[in-house]
Amino acid sequence: MERYAAHFCEWVDGTVVKMSPVHDAHDMIMRYLAMLFEAYFAYKPIGRIRQAPFVMRLERTREPDIQIILHINPHELKPTYMDGPADICIEVVSPESVSRDYGEKFAEYEKGGVREYWTIDPERQDSRFYRLSENGLYEAQRPNDADNYRTPNLPGLVIHVPTFWQQPLPDFLAVGRMMQEMVGAG
What we know:
Layout: E1 9-12, E2 15-18, H1 24-43, E3 47-51, E4 55-57, E5 61-62, E6 66-70, E7 76-77, E8 81-83, E9 88-92, H2 98-112, E10 116-121, E11 126-132, E12 138-141, E13 148-149, E14 159-160, H3 172-184
Parallel strand pairs: 4-8, 9-10
Antiparallel strand pairs: 1-2, 3-6, 4-5, 6-9, 7-8, 10-11, 11-12, 13-14
Helix pairs in contact: 1-3
């Protein structure tokens, strides 16, 4: 993978797989999520964020769009990869990644022990949240009646799902204000 680091690839069953360039909507959602999680961890320093092309090694080596790695995670975070499952993996679905994100990665992350898997699909305006159950299988989690998703892994964080489809998405200052209201007082 070191030879292909500049080419945005994944290692799948002994084969280097070249990934497609990202779409504008994909990039904007990624930037928003990165700001959101960075702000959250500034207030609650319980973990860190890593973004593709940072890899996660399970049975296969993948590049989740976003990995949330909590400080309590027993696996080793190396300088260039996560050696074991991240706590939360997020994939922003692109037209070319539908089967990979909803199928292959879902199965791999579940089997590999990723505690939560989120897919955010801007084309379909669909978000899905899965949490690993005690029996090792993903169970779908639903946002509440106000379309807010909360995870026990990130106490106090509220993900307002319709925000993903806004044009434009909240900027750096708006994310900071939102986070201060959510978790800043605690």
